[in-house]
Amino acid sequence: MLQSFIQNIFNALQWGSFYSLIALGYCLVYGVLLLINFAHGDIFMVGAYIAFYVCMLFLGKFGIIPGMPGWLVLALAVPLTMMLTAVVGVTLERVAYRPLRRKGVNRLYVVITALMCGLILEHANLALLGASRRSFPTLIPTTVYNIAGVNITNVKLGVILVAVLAFFFLRFVVVKTKIGMAMRAISYDRFAVPLMGIPADSVIVFTFVLGSGFAGLAGLLFAVTYPVLDPYMGALIGWKAFIAAVVGGIGSIRGAFAGGFLLGFVEIMVVAFFPSTLRDLIAFTILLLILSVKPTGLFGVARRTKI
Question: Coiled-coil stretches, from where to where (predicted)?
Fold first, then answer.
């Protein structure tokens, strides 16, 4: 019984790592712009497809460059996938969000635009690449470590470690750097920041670079762990990551990180003790109860609007 419980904890940590990396992107954009970027889940999907084609290129499948070892392909694919996915996120900000922001439109229209951008990404993928699923290549052999009857793979440990390192890196950027200070200043008063000589548009672009880069990293890790890609893979996991960010406290980095792991833990434990068909029902009921007790989330703080 104890071994099974510990095994489920590691499974929950792995599953929660995906939610946390995506939730961090929601948190960044909302914290700076008070915008819920509902296209973020589909940016995660785009990141997984970018990782697929990058890895196929470095493996020599397209005949452009000679094939490389799997570990080297993975090492090169991580930064390249994050950069290319960040380009997608910045393009969305430049084309879809910035014109609306400069016109000062109601925030509801920006949210609707974000939903539309997500649908565009899904159906553009479907139109360009077809409905056939892609099988992600195996880059590193899976090694299973048996510790006191608990099976842990090298991939699972790697996913958890990368998620934790990404969280500490983001905390460092936001708390210890000048660009992070500018991000916090914009979240406090977006209209006063340009008067202080801070280029607000550049800071917002950097925010989308960070958020979309983490989504691309999550897409790569998810594809390595569950090597089947389809155009709609980001829809459900994106919504769940958003819910995790809300439960943790939307706008709080540690809240988004903790909310992702909380959702992963609840889902895995529900499947361990109940039929899998009840997973979403029980998991979201528990999260709803948490929000009913603490509406701002676990680490969220109520915002006050000056009149």
Answer: none
Residue 254 identity (one-letter amino acid): R
Q: Is residue 265, in this structure, part of any structural domain at all? A: no
Residue 54: CB atoms within 10 Å: 18
Q: In sequence order, which residues have a C-beta less than 8 Å from that of residue 145 and are 6 or more positions away?
A: 151, 152, 153, 154
Query: With 50 as the cut, is the pLDDT of residue 296 above it?
Result: yes
Checking if the pLDDT of 284 tops 90, the result is: no
Region 51-62 average pLDDT: 91
**pLDDT tier, 107 (very low <50, low <70, confident <90, very high otherwise):** confident
Q: Per the domain annotation, does 6 fall within a domain?
A: no
For the chain, what is the mean pLDDT? 88
Q: Which domain holds residue 165?
A: 15-235
Confidence of residue 22 (pLDDT cuts 50, 70, 90): very high
How many domains are contained in the chain? 1
Instruction: Say if 109 falls within a structural domain.
Output: yes
pLDDT of 85 strictly over 90: yes
> What are the beta bridge partners of residue 228?
135
pLDDT digits (tens, 9 = 90+) for 230-280: 999 998 899 899 999 999 888 888 999 999 999 999 999 888 888 878 888
SS3 sequence, the chain? Answer: CHHHHHHHHHHHHHHHHHHHHHHHHHHHHHHHHCCCCCCHHHHHHHHHHHHHHHHHHHCCCCCCCCCCCHHHHHHHHHHHHHHHHHHHHHHHHHHHHHHHHHHCCCHHHHHHHHHHHHHHHHHHHHHHHCCCCEECCCCCCCCEEEECCEEEEHHHHHHHHHHHHHHHHHHHHHHHCHHHHHHHHHHHCCCCCHHHCCCHHHHHHHHHHHHHHHHHHHHHHHHHHCCEECCCHHHHHHHHHHHHHHHHCCCCHHHHHHHHHHHHHHHHHHHHHCCHHHHHHHHHHHHHHHHHHCCCCCCCCCCCCCC
